[in-house]
Each structure stands twice: as C-alpha cells, then as structure tokens.
Design a protein that fits this description.
This protein is an all-alpha fold. Helix content is about 65%, strand content about 0%. The radius of gyration is 18 Å and the shape is elongated.
Amino acid sequence: MRANVPFETACKNFEEDLVLYYYGETSDAERLPIEQHLLACQSCRSFVDDLRRLLPQIAKSEELPQSFWDTYYRETV
C-alpha cells in the first residue's frame, strides 16, 4: 500500500546514514561511501529527494511574536 507511505524506502543499512547525510551531520569519511551508494541506488536517491522535498514543509518553524520573547526573557531571568 505505497500510497500511505510518505517517503520512498531506502536500503535499511543506509537509512539512518542518509538522514544524517541530509542534515550535514556526516564526516568526510562517512560521506564518501554514502555518496558512492547514492550513485548506484535509485531507491536511496529517491529517499534523499523525499527528505529534501518534504522535511522543510513538515518542520517549518513558527514565527513567534515579540510578546512571546518578552515574556520568555522575564521568566528566564
């Protein structure tokens, strides 16, 4: 039932690495094998494309009014 799955499925042994790769949380040594795998694997490329397309929409930050920051500052101090 693919219609209910929001993301393309990635290779299980690369899925976590691909998320870290998307967020830029991989070292140069970790990034090279991921990028080599992406060259050969359409599913993982689609997974990363889905991350790029969907995560910014899902994780939009809400613009908070100045009154929130004023209250936050008072309560923090």
